[in-house]
Design brief:
The protein has 195 residues and is mostly beta strands. It is 12% helix and 44% strand. The strands form two sheets. It has a six-stranded antiparallel barrel. It has a six-stranded antiparallel β-barrel with strand order 7-8-11-10-9-12. Strand 7 and strand 8 form a beta hairpin. The longest helix has 12 residues. It is globular and about 45 Å long.
């Protein structure tokens, strides 16, 4: 379980194909604090640390994960948002994030505002892909508040701190991002179709 509050950015150091999987080596400032078998969110995708070497660590993304996320699009040097799993005695600063990405979306626009940026996203419609204005959504692992909500698109407002301390500063139209819709909305959508 995660909160959507990013702790740092990792740099992609290597990508190795292993059957239908990809093994990634990432470098980050707190790699020495990690342990093998620990869950770590990468652009919002929960992956298990399988090896640690100094300031680098390895994770493996299986085929199902690669189909649903933007991890297969990473290149050497790509920046990835990182968050370690939540501790039960910590404050919940963002919202409840599972690290189970629902789909990817494309950035359709990045509009500078006076002191912030408005970023719009578009995704393929599905019954349980729901956003509501002022509701929560997780984009590349970042807990955000929806500004505008449409059938298959939404926008968010990005404050300077988030812009500078996540990979959002790399976004441009066409950038693929990972989306995890709010868990409560997904349960409500499921119930609505069952009843």
């Amino acid at each position: 379980m995660f909160t959507g509050i990013i702790e740092g950015i990792a740099i992609t150091k290597s990508i190795a194909k292993q059957g239908t999987n990809l093994r990634f080596t990432f470098e980050c400032t707190f790699a020495s604090e990690l342990k093998v078998d620990q869950s770590l969110a990468h652009n919002g995708v929960c992956l298990t640390v399988v090896a640690i070497d100094g300031s680098s660590y390895d994770v493996v993304a299986i085929e199902e994960t690669l189909k649903r996320t933007n991890l297969g699009l990473l290149e050497i040097g790509s920046e990835v948002n990182l968050e370690r799993c939540m501790k039960l005695n910590d404050r919940l600063d963002g919202h409840m994030v599972q690290g189970h990405v629902d789909t990817t979306a494309k950035v359709t626009s990045v509009t500078p505002r006076e002191g912030s940026w408005e970023v719009e996203f578009e995704y393929k419609s599905a019954a349980n892909y729901i956003t509501v204005e002022k509701g929560s959504v997780c984009v590349n692992g970042v807990s955000l508040t929806v500004v505008k909500s449409e059938n298959n698109s939404f926008s968010v407002a990005i404050i300077p701190y988030t812009w500078e301390h996540t990979n959002f500063h790399t976004f441009k139209p066409g950038t693929a991002v990972n989306i995890e819709f709010d868990i409560i909305g997904k349960y409500l959508a499921k119930l609505a179709h069952v009843v």
